[in-house]
């Protein structure tokens, strides 16, 4: 009996997994740069990892090369890039003097990211078919990492000294809580608009890129604040309206 021929894959089919591995390399290298005190370079690498994380899944669907191993690689890399790496970077930047309290905040953030990714994987496998169809439940891990870095972005934008470690630790724990929250957050990949507005979207995207190149830290602060405002508006809109009491008398 003739042995089955080995399955062949094209280089294009491997591109999504290559992007995922590239994102992991960026995240691990960011940790190295943070240890060396090169925090600006570390933040740039995490931002680059977030961009590659947003592209790998879309590229896999475009090339029809989705696979279970690709999904597992993506989840594991997300935990390193947006859980472990941000926790260690912020720890090295502002929390070392706090010792136990600062490390507790790091652990809260990292474990929250782990739980967030585990819940997303369960929903993605259709065990919870209603989860994450029109948006996300809680803050997704890449956005959580960028929110976690908000104190660093603000310090670099203003040239100020790092904030008090206690405030940074509280903020990190709060971001962790937002990642595991059950409230709905918007998914920008599901955002649609009329074709007549495409030119404005393209111009806005070009303006965003220009702002990131010219004023990277101030732009990242603005992006974080806008995202927080969007979450707040989403929470207000989804909050159940209190029933009015019936009027007394006639």
List keywords for this structure.
9 helices; Four Helix Bundle (Hemerythrin (Met), subunit A); 250 residues; disordered C terminus; 2 strands; 2% strand; mainly alpha; single chain
Tell me the strand percentage band. Answer: under 5%
Structural class assignment: mainly alpha
**What's the end-to-end separation, in Å?**
92 Å
> Got a strand count?
2
CATH superfamily (homologous) name: CDP-alcohol phosphotransferase transmembrane (TM) domain
Query: Main sheet: which strands, in order across?
Result: 1-2
Please compute the radius of gyration using only Cα atoms.
21 Å
- The number of helices is 9
* Known CATH architecture: Up-down Bundle
Describe this entry's structure for a reader:
The protein is mainly α and 250 residues long. It has a single domain (12-237), classed as CDP-alcohol phosphotransferase transmembrane (TM) domain (Four Helix Bundle (Hemerythrin (Met), subunit A)). The chain is built from nine helices and two strands, in the order ααααβαααβαα. It has a two-stranded antiparallel sheet with strand order 1-2. It is globular, with a radius of gyration of 21 Å. The model is unreliable at 126-131 and 242-250 (pLDDT under 50).
